Amino acid sequence: QVQLQESGPGLVKPSQTLSLTCTVSGGSISSGSHYWSWIRQPAGKGLEWIGRVYNSGSTNYNPSLKSRVTISIDTSKNQFSLNLRSVTAADTAVYHCARAPSGIAFDIWGQGTTVTVSS
Amino acid sequence: QSALTQPASVSGSPGQSITISCTGTSSDVGSFNLVSWYQQYPGKAPKLMIYEDSKRPSGVSNRFSGSKSGNTASLTISGLQAEDEADYYCCSYPGISNYVFGTGTKVTVL
Questions:
Q1: Is residue B102 over pLDDT 90?
Q2: Any CB–CB contact under 8 A between A96 and chain B?
Q3: Is the pLDDT of residue B31 over 80?
Q4: For a disulfide at B18, which of A81, A118, B12, B37, Cβ 3.0-4.6 Å?
Q5: Hey, which residues 45-74 in chain B have their CB within 8 Å of chain A?
Q6: Distance from A22 to chain B by nearest Cα, in Å?
Q7: How does DSSP assign A48-90, residue by residue?
């Protein structure tokens, strides 16, 4: 059974870069027509899609975040990563990674990791 | 692109049916976009309940059903149970990129 696990710093200073990694276990990140996404949720608020990567390395981003986001994939480590630059307090949220078969819907989610932006 | 509009809260008694709406525009929900629905308990990751507007993943109770008409998608929970008390989110996917989530609905079982 495929499982996803987010990892990375829980505290990031304003103007710095938020970097998170999602490790895929129980299956290959390269198998199937799966898209791998990052989704965030500020405390008490709704979900926001950040962007996704395919096993070929091709990416799509939320237009509202596109200028600050880079998502990459490392098939040798069965991981994909998120870099969000120039963060502010508004980027404080729980960050989830998720799988979308053929991009249709998010069928497997990581438990989420809380990232706080504060000096 | 703006979030899809959902009612902030919906409530019902055990055994009743409730429906959660998800309203977009002719550019998202009302177009070719595929709608999915997610259930989320506090402090937990969302769980896929409905995909491609009305399909249920394996293991999801048949008390959950989805539909779409015009610019509005709907999630119906029949035979409401205490365990259904959670937050629910819709999501529109245009088939290319840029998923858009709904504002979320808190379901309360009275």
A1: yes
A2: yes
A3: no
A4: B12
A5: 45-48, 51-52, 57
A6: 14
A7: EEEEEEETTS-EEE-TTTTTTEEEEEETTTTEEEEEE-S--GG
Ranges of chain A whose pLDDT falls below 70: none
Nearest to A22 by CA among A83, A86, A66, A67: A83
- Tokens encoding B76: 């119906």
Residues 6+ apart with CB under 8 A from A45: none
**Sign of the CA dihedral running B30, B33, B34, B40:** negative
CB contacts of B45 in chain A (<8 Å) are 96, 109-112
Q: Which residue has the tokens 């989830």?
A: A96
Distance of residue B77 Cα from the nearest chain A Cα, in angstroms: 20
The two tokens of residue A3 are: 């499982």
Direct distance between the N- and C-terminal alpha carbons of chain B, in angstroms, rounded to an integer = 35
Given pLDDT bands bounded at 50, 70 and 90, which one contains residue B39? Answer: very high
| pLDDT for residue B2 | 84
Instruction: Check CB contact of A70 with chain B, cutoff 8 Å.
Output: no
The answer to whether B102 and B22 have CB atoms below 8 angstroms apart is yes
Q: Is A105 on the interface with B (CB under 8 A)?
A: yes
Taken in order A9, A45, B1, B4, is the CA torsion positive or negative? Answer: positive
